[in-house]
Amino acid sequence: MSNPVLVCVFRGINAYDTLAGVLEGFTQRREKLTTSGSLPQAIMALTPEVTFRQAVLFFTEADFVTGKTYTLQEHTYHSLQSLCFSFSVGESWRCRAESLFTYLHTGARVLCTVLLIKPSVWSQNLAGILRNLDLEKFTLVGMKHIDLEPAIALGLLPSEVKQDPAALEAHCTYLTSGTALVLCLQRPNAVKKLVDLLGPEDPKLAQALDPCLWRAQYGISTVHNGFYGSKSYQMAVRDMKLFFPEGLCCAKCQTLEEEEV
């Protein structure tokens, strides 16, 4: 125990799985570089409960803080992990920072996301889709019909589609072929929850994974897959500003106000 240790805290979406992957890669690289065992060993907490117990051993409420820079991500109780650590936070940061202990207790933040129901799908299945949204605890805070312009349709497509001219033309032709229905939805962890419910872009793959996924139920091909959903918090903010520039029928949440600033 004569050597010091570095203790760090990280926060992010799917934080435990992400950090585990990073540490696995670190371990593999270390084994290739040396056989002496002299390089640092890394240990991480595996559950939120263990994380909290370890955090209070090393930090006080005044020390353990995070700045507003990180409020652009979705935060959940399960998004914190500990990796043996110790560092101090400057006073200039602390005066405008928010305690990460508070996040552990308060849980997930209420966020907004955007769901676009593609042409022909919403007119035939709207009642069922709205019922599913209600069952998943989404609150509808914005809704409008829209005829997509080609430039806007292009901005909604994944990068891999844009690399295939034939697929790009097929997607854009379909998205601009009729009226789409755009919904702005609100709930804790809204972005990730919606992405998880929609499933893969390919309805056949979604069907193989889980027939209850929405693209498995309503999609028939990678082009006619039923839905577009914001894939990240940053994209959700972009989509809200794009489709609802006039505002939403809900009280603004803190994260959205921070984005507008």
Can you offer a commentary on this structure?
- This is TXND3 protein.
- The chain is built from 13 helices and eight strands.
- Helices cover 44% and strands 15% of the residues.
- The protein starts with 7 loop residues before the first strand and ends with a helix.
- It is α+β, with helices and mostly antiparallel strands and 261 residues long.
- It has two domains: 1-31 and 43-64 and 94-107, no CATH class; 108-244, 2-Layer Sandwich (Alpha-Beta Plaits).
Topology:
Layout: E1 8-11, H1 15-33, H2 48-58, E2 65-66, E3 80-83, H3 91-94, E4 98-99, H4 100-106, E5 110-117, H5 121-135, E6 139-146, H6 150-155, H7 159-162, H8 165-175, E7 180-188, H9 190-198, H10 203-209, H11 214-218, E8 227-229, H12 233-243, H13 254-260
Antiparallel strand pairs: 1-3, 2-4, 5-7, 5-8, 6-7
Number of helices: 13
Q: Which runs of at least 5 residues are low in confidence (pLDDT < 50)?
A: 68-97
Number of strands: 8
| Widest sheet: strand ordering | 6-7-5-8
The CATH topology label of the largest domain is Alpha-Beta Plaits
Q: How would you characterize the largest beta sheet?
A: 4 strands, antiparallel
Helix content: 40-55%
Q: What Rg do the Cα atoms give?
A: 22 Å
Write the CATH homologous superfamily of the largest domain.
Nucleoside diphosphate kinase-like domain
Structural class: alpha+beta
Instruction: Estimate the mean pLDDT confidence.
Output: 78
What is the succession of H and E elements? EHHEEHEHEHEHHHEHHHEHH
- How many domains in all? 2
Family: Belongs to the NDK family.
Domain Nucleoside diphosphate kinase-like: 110-250
Pfam families: NDK
InterPro entries: NDK-like_dom (IPR034907), NDK-like_dom_sf (IPR036850), TXND_domain-containing (IPR051766)
